[in-house]
Every structure is written in structure tokens, then in C-alpha cells.
Amino acid sequence: MKPKKSSYKILVAIDGSQYSPKALDYACKIAKIDNAQLQIINVVEEYFNVGQSILRQLDKTSKEILREYEALAKSLEVMHVSTIQARGNAPEEILKAAMREKVDTIVVGSRGHYRSKMDFILGSTSYKLAHYSKCTVIIVK
Amino acid sequence: MKPKKSSYKILVAIDGSQYSPKALDYACKIAKIDNAQLQIINVVEEYFNVGQSILRQLDKTSKEILREYEALAKSLEVMHVSTIQARGNAPEEILKAAMREKVDTIVVGSRGHYRSKMDFILGSTSYKLAHYSKCTVIIVK
Predict the structure, then answer these.
(1) Which residues of A72-86 are buried (b: 16+ CB within 10 A; e: fewer)?
(2) pLDDT at B3
(3) Global pTM value
(4) How many helices, marked H, and strands, marked E, lie in chain A?
(5) What residues in B contact A25, CB-CB < 8 Å?
(6) DSSP state of B3
(7) Looking at the predicted structure, is the pLDDT value of residue A113 above 50?
(8) Does the ipTM exceed 0.85?
């Protein structure tokens, strides 16, 4: 029998990069403190004007990533795990999900670098979450 | 007898504002997971060209804040607590202490607003820590 889940909610953003396993690991560590509900989100980013077939492929890959990370969280003994798939701009979709699901903490991996000067000025995903989130944000490095 | 402390180190930045108790609370929660060493830092900010007598008074207040938060952490059953007092620019001094002490996680409260447009552009303390820190950063809101 699963232990009763608490009302504490953690949302971990996963992008399939090398920083995601560390973010999941941290999120699981926190989730186990109060037997929190862990939600794993992956956003299919629509940066370019790609066609429907490519988007379908990206959706499929995203579902695979989510399944993989859900299994990983369960193997780390987190009892209450669910997944969210979104499409659009990563920080916006993460913030929307956090508001909708009323999460207490967002966990995100840091890329640790900026792809361009514009990224530095406008901010990366973690930077935007740190700024706009209404709840606690953990930037895992 | 104190349980053996782990090598995991958490640095929590306290400024005596209303956001500090929440940051300490979160830091204690994380510290208890692996019986980590909790270090509490307070920075006496040298924004203005203040005289020595005022700086002495600020140092005294800073020491009182640190003593208060150290006692609070101990009352929350964190076994290994120490304090750091610094003088200068808050994010710079927090980052320097984090590097020197080789901490694994920095915890900081978010003010949730910006005092000026310049603050928004250049970034608040939590913003700067999120960007420049080499280790995981928790922005408690």
C-alpha cells in the first residue's frame, strides 16, 4: 500500500539534456521529505516553424523522456509521480503548469552557460523561472 | 551525542527581512535529509559612505541576527550549524563564502519585487546567485 500522499507538490522540468538527471535526483530527494506529489514536465519547444510531422516526432520523443524519468523517480522510491507534456515556450509552459497545479516548488537543471548574448540579457529558462515564479525555485547545477 | 555530520554543506543567506525565516526553514528541511552542515551567512552591506560608528552598529545587529537564526536552526533539530559574518556587496560575499567553504547548495529568500528598474536589469541578490553560483541555488518564495 502506498503511504498517504501529502498536499505538497513539486514540479520538475526535464528537457532530456545532461542536466535533467541531476534535477530529477534533487527533486526526488525533496519529494521524499514530506512524501510529496512529484510532477515531471517536458515541453516540446516550438522555436522554429517546423512541420506537423516533425512536431509529431518531437511529441513522441517527449513522451519517451517522460516515461523514462517517471520510471527513474519510482526507482528512487518516490511514490506519487505523474507527468505533464506541454508544447510551446519552455519557461512559460512550466510557469503555467506550476500555477494550474498549485505547486510548492519548481526544480530545474541549469545549463550553466548561455547560447547567445541575447540569452544572457533576456534570461535562460532557469533565470526566467527564478524571476517570474510565485513559488520556490531550485536551480540544480 | 551528535550524529556524525555528512560532508554535504548548505549555505543559507539571511538578511533579517521577512523572507529570511522561510529561507532558514527550507534550508533546515534540506539539511536534515543528509545531516548536512548548515552555515548561516549575513552580509553587512556597504551601500553608502557611512561612518565607522554606524558600521559598528550594523555589525552588532548582524551578530544578533546570526545568533537568533543559529538558535532557530538548532531548535529545528539541525545538529551542525555555524555562522559567517561578512561585509560588502551581498551576492558577491555570498558567492565568495560558497566557493571558500565548498558548499553544495545556497538557499536564499526572494524579496519578490525589485526596488528599482536598475535592480530588475542588473538583478537582485537571488537573481545574481542563480546566475553566477557554481552550485545549486534555492530561491525560497
Answers:
(1) bbeebebbbbebbeb
(2) 61
(3) 0.90
(4) 5, 5
(5) none
(6) P
(7) no
(8) yes
Using pLDDT thresholds of 50, 70 and 90, give the confidence band for residue B2.
low
Which residues 77-116 of B have a C-beta within 8 angstroms of A? 110
Q: Which chain B residues contact residue A31 at CB under 8 A?
A: none
Domain parsing of chain A, residue ranges: 9-140
The long-range contacts involving A102-105, CB below 8 angstroms and separated by at least 24 positions, are A102/A9, A103/A9, A103/A10, A103/A11, A103/A39, A103/A135, A104/A8, A104/A9, A104/A10, A104/A36, A104/A135, A104/A136, A105/A9, A105/A10, A105/A11, A105/A30, A105/A135, A105/A136, A105/A137, A105/A138
Strands (E), chain A: 9-13, 37-45, 80-88, 105-109, 136-140
Query: Chain B: residue nearest A107 by CA?
Result: B138
Q: Write out the CATH class of domain A9-140.
A: alpha beta
Chain B partners of A139 at a C-beta cutoff of 8 Å? 130, 136-139
Query: What mean pLDDT, rounded, does chain B reach?
Result: 88
Residue tagged 535529509 (cell numbers): B33
Q: Which residues contact A63 (CB under 8 A, 6 or more apart)?
A: A85
Q: Characterize B11-39 residue by residue with b for buried, 16 or more Cβ atoms within 10 angstroms of its Cβ, and e for exposed.
A: bbbbbeeebbeebbbbbbebbeeeebbbb
Tens digits of residue pLDDT in B9-28? 999 999 978 889 999 999 99
**H/E segment holding residue B125:** helix B125-132
* CA–CA distance, B72 with B28 (Å, rounded to integer): 10
